[in-house]
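Bench log, entry 3. Co-assembly request; chain sequences pasted below exactly as received.
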Amino acid sequence: MSDLPELLKQLGELDDQLVTCMRCGTCQAVCPMYEQTGREADVARGKIALLEGLAYKLVKDPEGVQDKLSRCLLCGSCAASCPSGVKVLDIFIKARSILVAYLGLPTVKKIIFRGMLTKPGLFDGLMSLAAKFQGLFTSPANDVIGTSCSRLLQPIIGERHFRLLAKTPLHREFPSLDTPAGASGLKVAFFPGCMVDKMYTGIGEASLKVFKHHGVGVFLPAGQACCGIPALASGDMDSYLTLVRENLAAFKGGSFDALVTPCASCTSTIKEVWPMLSDRMSPSEQKAIKAIAEKTMDINAFVADKLGVVPPEPAADAVTVTMHDPCHLKKALGVSAQPRKLVAMNSKYVLKEMAGADTCCGCGGSFTLTHADMSAKIGQRKRDNIKNSGAQVVATGCPACMMQISDMLSRNGDNISVKHPIEIYAESL
Amino acid sequence: MNEALKKEFAALVGKDNVMESESDRFSYAYDAAVLEPVMPALVVRPETREALGRVVKLANDNGLPLCVRGSGTNLSGGTIPKQGGIVVLTNALNKILEINEADLYAIVEPGVITAKFAAEVAARGLFYPPDPGSQAVSTLGGNVAENAGGLRGLKYGVTKDYVMGVDFFDVDGEIVKSGSRTVKCVTGLNLHGLMVGSEGTLGVFEKITLKLVPPPLAQKAMMAIFDDVNKACEAVAAIIAAKIVPATLEFMDNFTIRTVEDFAHAGLPVEAQALLLIEVDGHPGQVADEAEKVEAICKKLGAKRVQVAKDAAERNKVWEARRAALSALARVAPTTVLEDATVPRSKIPAMMSAIVDISKKHKVTIGTFGHAGDGNLHPTFLTDRRNKEEWKRVEDAIDDIFDVALGLGGTLSGEHGIGIAKSKYMEKETNHATILFSRRLKKALDPKGILNPGKIIGE
Ligand SMILES: Cc1cc2nc3c(=O)[nH]c(=O)nc-3n(C[C@H](O)[C@H](O)[C@H](O)COP(=O)(O)OP(=O)(O)OC[C@H]3O[C@@H](n4cnc5c(N)ncnc54)[C@H](O)[C@@H]3O)c2cc1C
Ligand code: SF4
Ligand code: SF4
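Structure output for the full assembly:
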C-alpha cells in the first residue's frame, strides 16, 4: 500500500476497537514489559493511544509507533484484566500488519517468512541440514536441561542457551498417520507445530503414546505448515495467509472429533486468530476455518477433559514439579487446571506451585530475538520464581515457553529439568 | 525545547530516563479523563528523590510548566500537561522506606503502588484502609494529591485521614518538611494538609508519612434487594441513625444491576430497583450483633430480601458483583464517563430521581452506582465521544448534574478531583473570593506558575 491515506484508512478501520479503551490504566498492573520499564508506551494503554494518535494525525511518525508496538510480548495479560474488554491482541496483530504494509518488512524477516517458512518442503530441508551440522559450532551447556551455547552464532542469537534441533524431525519419524478411533471412541487430528516437529520431538512421541494408550485414533497428515503466528506477529499478513491455506489443504478431507496440539501458541492461534482474520479469505476457507477452530483443543485439556482420566495418589518419594502457565494457555484459553491434572496422573511426580505461576516467561516468539535484553530480564524473574519454589522439575504446556525457561535456567547454571505435562504423563504409561 | 536544556535534564536523571521521541511524549498526553490529549515537550523519570528535586529546580529556573505524574489514572485531567512543558514521572521512586509496627506509621516514596503498599502492610498484621478502585495501579503520591477515597470511606475515612506528614519540594527544589511520625503534632502551619488534594499545583511530594491501623478481626457482608430506590436510601439513613457505621455501604441502580448480571451472571435480581451491598467489620461479637441489626433494619424498611454471606466464598460473590459494576458498564458503549458529584447522605433519593430526570431530558444513558453511605454516587455516562451531537448532550447533562448536586448542598467531586475537567465549575460551588485566595496562595508559592498550571483554579 505504502501511501499515507491508505494507512490512515486502514487504521480508521480499527477505530471501533480502539475507542473501547477508556484509558483507565488497569493494564499497568499486569504488563510484563511495563513492569520492567515503567514506560507508558510499553503498556497497552499507551500503544492504543499511539494508534489512535496516528489514525487522527496527532502522531506523525509511524516508525516510532511501530517500534513501540514491537515492544510487546503479545502475552494478552492486558486483555485478560481489562475492565473494558478491549480486544488488545486483535488490535495489535492487525496494527502490526497495517504498519508493515506501509513501512515494509525488514529484509531478514522477508527471507525467513517469504523465502522459507511458507515453503514447508524447503524449510524442513534447511532445518534437517542444520540439524546435521549444528554439533560443529555449538558446545553443550547444561546436561540436565539439554541446552547448548555457541560462540560462532553469538552475533545472531546472543548469549542464549538453546536446545539443538532434533536429529530426526517428527515428520520424518511419522510422515503421516491415519488410524481409527479405538477404545475411547475418539479420533483426533494431530498438529505438532514447528517446535515439536523440529526440536522437541519427544513431546510429539509422548502425545502419540498417550493417544495409543487411550485408544484415540490419529489423523496426522503430511504437509503441515507453521500455524502462522510468527509471521503475523511480525506483521507479515501475506505469509500468514499462505501458511493458513497450506494447513487447510493438509487437513482437508480428514474426519476427526478434535484437532489437538501440544503447543499453547499454536492452539490459541488456530482457535482465536484464524477466525479473527478469516474475513480476509474466501467463503469456503472461512467455513473450513470455523469448523477447525471450533474443534481445536490444547492437548492438556483434551486428555484431562475428554478421556476421563483419574489421578492416583502421589508416591512418598515423588519428584517435585512446579508449573508455569503459558499466557496462550491460561489467559487466552482459560486452561490451567488440566496440565496440573496431567502431572498428577504420574504418581512419581508431585506438584509444588511457584509464586506468579501465570506471569509471562518473556519469550513472546521472535520478541526474544528482537528484544533479547528485555526478554532475558523478564525471563530472569520467572527463573527466580522457579528456583525459589524448590522444585526439581518445571512443567509447562508450550514449547516456546520451554525454550525460554530452559535458556534462563541454563544460563543461571540451575539443574532443573523442563518438561511438557504430556511427557510426564506418558512416562507413567 | 532546545538541545542544551534537554542535555541538562539528561545530566540530572541519566540519558535513559529522558524521553523525547514523539511516540514517547504522546503516551504522556492523556490520563483517565475523557479530554483532548496535549503532548509535553519532554518526559523525565528521576530514579532518586534528589534528582526529582533538581528537576523541579531546573524547570523553575527555565520557567517550564511541570506536570508530576504517578500512574496517570486520575479522572479529571490532572496529568494532562501544558503544551511545551515537561512531565515528571514518579514511578521509579517506589520504595517503602519504613513500616513502623510499634508506632503504627509508614514512610514511603511517592511512586509506591497503593495495593502493593497495602499488601506489604497487611503482611505485617496491620491495615492501610484507603482503597480506591484503581488501587492495583494508582500511586500513593497520586492518592494524596487527589485525596483519593474508596469503598471503605464511610467508616475508615479517605486518604487525608491517613496522611501524617508530607515532605515536598518547593519550586526552588528545596525540601519543605511538614507533619511528623507522632500521633500529635502542632509544630508550624499544617502544610501537609495543604498538600492533600493539591493535584501537583503547590509542591512536589518527596516522602509521605502514612498512618496505619490494626485490621478488623471479622467481617460480614450482605446484599439487600429493594423494589424502590427511596426505600433503599431510607435504609441507609436508618442504619446510620441506629449508630452503626458499616465499613462499606454501596448502592447500585436497576440499570447497573441489569448490566452487571448480563456481563457477570452473578445471579443478581434483575427486577430490583436498587441493591445495597453492606459490610460490617470489627470484633466478631460486635460484627454478629451489627449484622443482625442491619438485616432487621433493611427488612423493616421494605427490603424484598436480604442475603447474608455465610462464608468467605459468599462474601467474595457480593463484592465481585460490586467490582464488576464498572467493567460491565464500560462494555456497553465505546466511551465511559465516570462522574463523581456528591451530596449529603440524606439527599441521595433527591439526587437519584434528578439523575433519572436528567437522563430522560437529554436522552443519555446513565448507570448509577457508588458509595451510598458517603452520598458519593458515580452516575456513569455510556456514550460515544465520536458522536459530536450526543457528546454535546452528555456535556449538558453533566452540567445539570452539577447544578442539582450543588443545589442539594453537595459538592462537584467526592474523590476524583477537579483537574481541568471541573475547574470551570469551581466558582459555582465556592465563590469568587475563594478562587482569588487560592490563586494568590499559588502565586506566592509558585511565582512563575510552573506547577501543574491550569489545574483546579484555572490560570
Ligand atoms: C478505574 C478507576 C477507578 C478509580 N477509582 C477511584 C476511587 O475509588 N476513588 C478515588 O478517589 N479515585 C479513583 N480513581 C481516580 C484515580 O485513580 C485516583 O485519583 C488516584 O489517586 C490517582 O493516582 P495516580 O497515581 O494515577 O495519580 P496521577 O493520575 O498520576 O496524578 C494525579 C494527580 O496527582 C498529582 N501528583 C502525582 N504525584 C505527585 C507528587 N509526587 N507530588 C505532587 N503531586 C503529585 C498529579 O500532578 C495529578 O494532579 C479511579 C480511577 C480509575 C481509572
Ligand atoms: S485496561 Fe483496557 S481500557 Fe484500561 S487502559 Fe488498559 S486497555 Fe485501556
Ligand atoms: S500483550 Fe503483554 S506485553 Fe503486550 S501490552 Fe499486553 S500485557 Fe504488555
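Residues A 30-33, 43-44, 72-78, 88 surround iron/sulfur cluster (ligand 3) (CB under 6 Å). The domain at 170-305 of chain A is CATH 3.40.50 (Rossmann fold).
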